[in-house]
């Protein structure tokens, strides 16, 4: 773009930084919204050195539709074993019965990034870590002090509209995730209750416990999510991303199945939990970090 930028209509154009295929021009300026092979995420236009290191550490690409469907219906470690077709969703993170979460594969994780798909393999949103300073990113590259740092995530729809804001304060032993509306205001909290045995989180709002997230083994590989009556309302199944990624990258993939439509604020807490359980247990030795 040149001096005639203001005359260029809003839309996707070649990324002027060269870091991605396309970047969104809003009619007046470049935004942080980028896309590669049809998969959207955010990347600051004026990336600092740490951002560029983070980008350089990325390997591989996002899963295609067939791979996403295999994660949903496949058996064993490769999939969640969910029979297809399930109930048809509405194309949003709020109305899909199955969400597939794929972490961006990196040799070292400097910024947490996830793509969110429906069961058919269509991307419907993404999760990005926000608010990190260059010094913090450098510290993450040079040390393994991740769990002692505060992490902030934004869950966004595919058009870039923020749906939820999540904050996981620095932890020593147990995690708490604060779930907020896009414009601020607390919805609730996801609170880790124990360290020994199978990990358990409480879903809390307005001083009440609305449900729980319960690891089904000591490695925190799979979780069931229950409401306040103890009925299972959702399930999180981690899928094996392959030997190469397991050995050499930080990527995690998992499938989230919601058994029925949930009322608010429980729905927001379940969606937040489903899209942030990896960060909640960041650097935990049980295997989800």
Task: Kindly report how far apart the N and C termini lie.
Answer: 41 Å
Main sheet record? 12 strands, antiparallel, barrel
**Pattern of helices and strands:** EEEEHHEEEHEEEEEEEEHEH
CATH architecture, by name, is Alpha-Beta Barrel
Strand content: 25-35%
- Share of helix, binned: 10-25%
Whole-number average pLDDT? 79
Spatial strand arrangement across the major sheet = 5-6-7-8-9-10-11-12-13-14-15-16
What's the level 1 CATH class?
A: Alpha Beta
What spatial form do the alpha-carbon principal axes imply?
A: globular
How is the CATH topology named? Tubby Protein, Chain A
Which structural category do the helix and sheet elements fall into?
A: alpha+beta
Q: What does this protein structure show overall?
A:
Helix content is 16%, strand content 34%. With 289 residues, the chain is of the alpha+beta class. It has a single domain, classed as Tubby Protein, Chain A. The strands form 2 sheets. A 12-stranded antiparallel β-barrel has the order 5-6-7-8-9-10-11-12-13-14-15-16. It has a 4-stranded antiparallel β-sheet with strand order 1-2-3-4, with no helix packed on it. The N and C termini lie far apart (41 Å).
